[in-house]
Amino acid sequence: MSGGWRRLRADDLPGVEAFLAEHIQSSIFTLVNLRDHGLDGTDARAVALWGCDGADGPAGVLAVTREGMLLPQIPVRNAALARALGGALAGRPLVGAIGDADQVRCLLLALGLDRAPTRIDADDPAFRLDLDALALPPGPEVALEPAGTGNSEVLARFRSAYHREVLGTPAADADAAARADVARFLTGDSYRLLHRGGRALGMTGINATWGDTVQVGGVYVRPEERGRGIARRAVGLHLAEVRAAGARRAILFASGDAAARAYRALGFEPAGTIAMVLFDGPQRVPE
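^ thats the sequence. predicted structure below, dont judge the formating
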């Protein structure tokens, strides 16, 4: 126990999952990592969990992946509560934080990491869509193709560019990171390439699925093809596909005004703000 926080165990998970599912817009990564990689596991995305108990169940949950990503769900903004986590996290290498923007900013400030050097530090608008309301405006005559071994090289090139442009990954590391990602995409059948006349124009993906909710991400279009509605068309076609397979809701966060306009055109509505902070090298909570 540390200042109202305690390390969570396997028997806490039913209540934790129910709590996180109530805040799925900013908790889907925690839920999926927990399901796919386990509690206190050895995979880089396995999570350790700390919780703060309320009167009727969890009042806050902090997940930290084995690689060091902070994933907070602490709806009550309370710096003292967040500071109490410092002892539990002392000495643990941390690579960044993703979550509700207010919560991420409060947590990093409380941990003394708000001025840590970063390669990405962005607050992006979040959106959600009931897929029954999906609007597919007229657009370019294009087709989606499932990612597979036959087109993995193209997907890897797009993903490498995405790493450099969106995630701030150093050029020397982007290709290796992209290939590792693509191996995961192929296993999960989660990404699609967009084609026109036999030429790959871009990609779109489903980063996470929880129940009937999907999280859209990894959208990339060749620079020379941007501004023509291609990203909007790719996402719309992919969402129509997952809707036919049973998905009922889509969530995402948009990196930039052009992306936000594309998502609004598909029917997405504002749903808060997500912060993505990636440190420039591992950081540790100050003693």
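The chain has a mean pLDDT of 91.
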